Amino acid sequence: MSEIFVGEDKDCKNVNFMTFDKRKSDIEKLETLEELKRRKEKQSPYERWIQVNKDYYKAEDKLMAQSPIAYRIFKFLINNMDGYNSVVCSYKVIQEYFNISQVTVARAIKLLKEKKYIEIYKSGTSNVYAINKNIVWNSWGNNFKYAKFGANILLSESEQEKKDIKIKHEKVKHINIKKEL
Question: Of 40, 53, 62, 133, which cross-links 147 as Cys (Cβ 3.0–4.6 Å)?
Fold first, then answer.
C-alpha cells in the first residue's frame, strides 16, 4: 500500500493526499465494515462446517485404502479451502506440511485429479485446486454455482525470494506476511 498524506487543505497535485475529515470518514467506514463482518460471523453457528455428500463415503474408503497420503492431502485441501471450495498452494507447501517428497505429492495430486476429487486450474505458475463440489461443499446451497471462484492462498516460507519475510499461519486461516527489519 502506498503512503497517505493527511493535512488541513486538499493538495490537488498529490493523489495520495487527503484531508483530516476525509481520512477520519474513511477510518470510520472501515471500522463499521469490520464490525458488521464480526457480527455476521457470530450469527452463523456453521462458520467452520462443511457439507458432505453421503455417496462420497464409499469413494473415501477406497481412496484411504489406495493411497493414504492422497487422502490426507485431500483432507488438507478441504480444511484450507475458501467458501467456494478453492485453495491456491504450491507442491512445496504440501511437501513441507506432510514432510514428503515432491514425487509423492505429484503422484497423490495426479490420483486426486484422475478420480475427480479435485480439478486443477493454473494461475501463472500457481495451482488453484478446486475441490469437487459434488463431494464436499463449504458454503450455502445458493452459492453452489460459484464453486470455482475465489481461493485461499497458502504460502511456504522457504519459497520466498526475500529471506527476511516470515510467514505465520494462524488457526483462523489467515496468513500474515511480516517483514523483519
Answer: 133
pLDDT per residue over 112-128, tens digit each? 999 999 999 877 777 88
pLDDT over 90 at 90, yes or no: no
Return the sign of the alpha-carbon dihedral for residues 54, 107, 109, 96.
Answer: positive
The contacts found for 77-81 with CB under 8 angstroms, 24 or more apart, are 77/118, 77/129, 77/131, 78/50, 78/131, 78/136, 78/138, 80/152, 80/154, 80/173, 81/129, 81/131, 81/138, 81/151, 81/152
Query: Hey, what's the cell of 14?
Result: 498529490
How far is it, in rounded angstroms, from Cα 85 to Cα 77?
9
**Of residues 106, 108, 121, the one with CA closest to residue 72:** 108
**Per-position DSSP letters for 74-127, written without gaps between them:** HHHHHHH--TTSEEE--HHHHHHHHT--HHHHHHHHHHHHHTTSEEEEEETTEE
Whole-number Å distance between alpha carbons of 38 and 107: 41
- How many CA atoms lie less than 13 Å away from 60 in the CB half-sphere? 13
Q: Which helix (H) or strand (E) holds 128?
A: strand 126-131
